[in-house]
Specification:
Helix content: 10-25%
Structural class: mainly beta
Number of helices: 2
Number of domains: 1
Number of strands: 16
Strand order of the largest sheet: 2-5-6-7-8-9-10-11-12-13-15-16
Radius of gyration: 19 Å
Shape: globular
CATH superfamily: monomeric porin ompg
CATH architecture: Beta Barrel
Mean pLDDT: 86
CATH topology: Porin
């Protein structure tokens, strides 16, 4: 069942989150701990995750996060704004993710271990029926980020609930000076490790192999002291025959590739 979101409640919750985050650095300093908070709302042409297209129209994706020392907590949601979709009953909240993590530097490498709870509501495949991606699930993950040229990052995740399998993402990014702006160009490559939540191949089986690739270009434009506008454009495509079959079955439009964009308003304290 999709959940209708009263606009007044959404705005009230947003303001409450923002006020809480504004107080985080003050409380952290009082306790002698370095603390930060951030609030962001992105508006995207499509909801795309690991190569899967999970919305037919525009979405809003609010995020609230806090960091105390090496510990971080993040609350993220996807709100479907396309009220013209067949079967819709208005603006709906169809996913909420909660992430808890801890980061520690080891020389030039930063290791981050964490846990993600995915709460899905109404995310369906091409047939209009709910897929494994539409079932709540949970992951544990470990990320290694190296502070060097191209900023390589490797993330290994394991679905301990619905998927019962792993997923790996190798990502690269590089800042590019462009006059008054600093652009960031990057890309990622996903490898499925028999995670059933990522969809099945043509034989109806979970698989290990290439899954998706994505390239993007982004920037951040500062408009106030702690506030920025962050535009981003990206192209994502399924890779490998198994990956193409799985992504086509999970994506709401049945497509294997997509060009999409987003603009986020971010406040960091």
């Amino acid at each position: 069942m999709k959940t209708r979101i009263p606009i007044t409640i959404t705005l009230g919750a947003t303001l409450a989150f923002a006020l809480t985050l504004a107080c985080v650095p003050l409380a952290a300093r009082a306790e002698g701990t370095v603390g930060t908070g951030n609030f962001s709302t992105a508006f995207a042409s499509r909801y795309v995750w690991r190569g899967q297209t999970l919305s037919k129209g525009v979405v809003a994706q609010p995020t609230v996060g806090i960091t105390l020392g090496g510990f971080s907590a993040n609350f993220w949601s996807n709100v479907d704004l396309d009220t013209e979709e067949k079967g819709d009953d208005g603006i709906v909240l169809n996913e909420t993710d909660i992430t808890l993590s801890y980061a520690v530097p080891v020389g030039p490498v930063t290791l981050t271990g964490g846990f993600i709870h995915y709460d899905f509501d109404g995310v369906a495949g091409t047939g209009g029926t709910e897929t494994t991606t539409g079932s709540d699930t949970q992951e544990v993950y470990l990320t290694a980020a190296v502070a060097t040229l191209l900023n390589p990052t490797l993330t290994l995740s394991y679905d301990i609930d619905n998927g019962k399998g792993g997923f790996a993402v190798l990502a690269l990014s590089q800042a590019i000076p462009a006059g008054p702006l600093s652009l960031t160009a990057g890309g990622s490559l996903g490898l499925n490790l028999k995670d059933k939540a990522m969809g099945l191949n043509a034989d109806g089986k979970n698989f290990a192999g290439l899954y998706y690739g994505e390239v993007y270009l982004s920037t951040s434009i500062k408009i106030f002291n702690h506030v920025s506008i962050d535009p981003r454009i990206a192209y994502s495509s399924a890779i490998g025959s198994d990956g193409q079959d799985a992504i086509a079955s999970v994506s709401v439009d049945g497509k294997k590739s997509i060009f999409y964009g987003s603009v986020a308003l971010t406040a960091a304290f």
